[in-house]
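Progress against Task 2.4 (sequence-to-structure conversion) is shown through the following example record, which the project officer requested during the mid-term review.
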Amino acid sequence: MANPELSKPRRLWTVRILVVLSVLYTSWLLARTVEDFRDPCLDVSIGWIVVHVMLLAPYLAVLWFIQIGQLKNGLALALAWAPMTLFWILPALFEALKTDIYLNLGSVMFYRGGFLFFLVQIPLTISASWTYFKLTRHSKGKLGRVAVGSLGYVTLVVVIGWYSWPVDPYPALTYYAVVGRLRGINNAEASYAARYAEGFSANLAALGDPVAGSKPSATAAGLIDKYLASGTAVGYAFTYAPGQPNSDGHIHTYIVGARSLRRKCGPNYFTDQSEVIRRTAEDRPATAQDPALQ
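Structure tokens generated for the chain above:
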């Protein structure tokens, strides 16, 4: 008699594809974490790498179980793990999307890529559930035991993550966020100068949001968010220094520095009205003489 677990392969292609997508994203996170671990400026520990390995392992296990024909085990694991992953990534995504408006390639990969990863878990849960219960309709399933095991596994991930959580858990993302904010300041200054014909702003607060109910003005132009206007965002202190006004009282030059508040050493950043962003890994403010970003 044919093995009933091997008689329904057509139902698995959706699960396979969704699991592979999950593997790709968690593998990318693991690779970046290993890269950060090698950076002497960061405080990434072995435990943080272990957390990312443990996030990846269940998806690889699902593919392995399906490959060797143990469909019940594979589907039960997918059905148990995918919903738990939803609760793991949802709070981080919510906070990220709420505060970060300067999205570019790196932050899109994490935030938007993470959002797509989050969305993948929903059809994965549904597809694995439908296939699992079809497969076990006339036989005993293993979901209960797998769910209990997955819950214990998640608890272990949380405990290890809690004790190994670095000060800057995703520095590659911080890099893109800082550079994005510097570009945001440069763009805001250009818009400010064009809108008010008074040159550049006197300070960052002049680029920030006006009081509720008030219209944008030269003292509160509404061109950057309140976090950046305050001078502190994504673990960096942003300092703005306008140039000397000309005979008309207009400011035509400025410099902006961004210095880390939570890393052992840089990178620290510099930009000015040329809109070129420069960086140094030394423990000092970046200057116009430092190399420009490529």
